Amino acid sequence: MKTAIQFFRVGAFALLVGFAAAQIAAVSPASAQQAPNPTAQSVKEDQLLNALKPGASVSGRITIPDQNAGTLIQPQGQTWRAFHQSTLPVIGAVAVIGTIALLAVFFFVRGRVKIDGGFSGRTVTRFGGFDRFVHWVTASTFIVLALSGLNLTFGKSLIAPLFGEAAFASLAGYGKIAHNYLAFPFMAGVALMFIIWAKDNVPNKLDLDWIKAGGGLFVKGAHPPAKRFNAGQKGIFWIVVIGGLVMSVSGWHLLFPFSDGHFVSEQQFWVNVHGVLSMVFIAVMLAHAYIGSVGMEGAFDAMAAGEVDENWAKEHHSLWLEEQKQLGAKTPPRAVPAE
Length: 339
Ligand code: HEM
Description:
By secondary structure, this protein is mainly alpha-helical. The protein is built from twelve helices and four strands. It has helices spanning 2-27, 29-33, 45-51, 76-110, 129-163, 165-197, 205-212, 231-255, 264-291, 300-304, 310-316, 318-326; strands at 58-59, 71-73, 123-125, 307-309. The strands form two sheets. The protein has a two-stranded antiparallel sheet with strand order 1-2. Helix 4 packs parallel to helix 9. The chain is elongated. The protein starts with a helix and ends in a 13-residue tail after the last helix. Bound molecules: protoporphyrin IX containing FE (HEM).
């Protein structure tokens, strides 16, 4: 009887040790390095997260066709979310508000860039109907894309508290539809701009002199020579073409997510590219719109009527004006208002 009790005690102790060892093994780092079984009954989220090496994810078995749905946990999603919710709005606010502030300072210090020689009353054709059509299709679609995009980043914290959640929800809904569809005419506009203006935007030595002279923007009366487009405009052109291309490629991945079997991490990459570039793009286009309208006397006429004053052309595009004159470009005199 005594032997039986001893035997029972040893057996119970062995069972206890075995059980304890199993428990330790279950939480020890060595076993944690092995991929845990996400469908096991006792698996906990913390265990899964701790077990993941950087870049890894926990995937399970699924029977539906979309294999992406099998990803249970992707820890990079948390980093991405933090970037998207916190860092991107800061980048956007600095880029957009910073540019507006710089433009305001420039306006108050330098004032409007005037035509030094005043309006001559003679005009020269700068952009034909097709050039202007392409410009305004690209510009107007860009404005809607920019506003509806900014609404996605800032609307929840700026619009919703002011106009209410319901108003924000319908604005965001219509904004999303506009954003999705207007992306196509915008992409077409950028492609057409490249076709019609690339030949006049090839950089050359003259551009260096123009840049050294600050484009004549900071010194009154300074007018570095330029052909059809000066270095500043060439910069804008290539930002629009290359920026437009990258916005289009990244936007395409957002319009058609996972269409070529991408991983979640690739989607996150394209969202970040699209978001950060859009903020930089908007900031640059604010500066462009400023100098093409209130910032410079006579500039807007180029994209409105297509005709610019000869003195404007002489001051900002002297070599181009000479070329035009040699080509025999003759236009009827423009009516000058009586003083
Ligand atoms: C309402 C805003 C805008 C205004 C007032 C404006 C005005 C102008 C003007 C006056 C010109 C002709 C400059 C010249 O005679 O050389 C021009 C050219 C141009 N615009 Fe705009 N624009 C605006 C928006 C945009 C947008 C959103 C884009 C593209 C996304 C764009 C792209 C271009 C390009 C590539 C050129 C030719 C290169 C240059 O002159 O910088 N514009 N714009």
